[in-house]
Write a structure and sequence with these properties.
The protein has 157 residues and is an alpha+beta fold. It has six helices and four strands, in the order E-E-E-E-H-H-H-H-H-H. The protein has two domains: 78 residues, no CATH class; 67 residues, no CATH class. The chain is elongated, with a radius of gyration of 25 Å. The model has no long low-confidence stretch (mean pLDDT 87).
């Protein structure tokens, strides 16, 4: 993960012990860069954090086998899948719409539900699929005309 600061890192790694857990953070590729304003500078570096069971001699072991430990930390960082909070929001919105439709909660307007229409425009095509839009039309939460305007093609069941 990229990190920034006003000062450079003070070493290649740190080890902090908390409740029997070692939080090990590695710092690599530190460089001083000029900010967008063209005047100020900041330090940037790559940071990799792993957790291991705390044990005596851990710090010395990392020092003696630094490259191996760093490789493990990089691999674990790469394996972590960041949570896409926007996708989670889109999924929750879709499920809520489907839940209200399944419960028979009707909208008072003809055609598309204004909230659903706004969300469909916001989320399609990056967060909602064409199949999801088609489901909304089938459940009468989105009109066929609005579907065509959003998806760029006529609705077909």
């Amino acid at each position: 993960m990229k990190a920034t600061g006003t000062m450079p890192t003070t070493g290649a790694f740190t080890v902090i012990e908390r409740d029997g857990v070692a939080i090990i953070t590695f710092y690599a590729n530190a460089s001083l860069v000029t900010k967008e304003d063209g005047v100020s500078t900041e330090w940037q570096w790559d940071e990799y954090t792993i957790k291991r069971e705390w044990r005596d001699g851990l710090y010395s072991d990392i020092e003696a086998n630094y490259d191996s430990w760093l490789a493990v930390a990089k691999a674990e960082e790469e394996a972590r899948t960041p949570v896409d909070e926007w996708q989670l929001r889109a999924d929750v919105d879709f499920l809520q719409i489907m839940q209200t439709a399944a419960m028979g909660i009707a909208t008072m307007s003809l055609g598309s539900d204004p909230d659903v229409l706004e969300k469909a425009r916001q989320y399609y095509p990056k967060r909602w699929s064409q199949e999801q839009l088609q489901m909304l039309v089938s459940m009468q939460k989105l009109s066929q005309e609005d579907y065509q305007g959003i998806a760029g093609e006529a609705f077909s069941a």
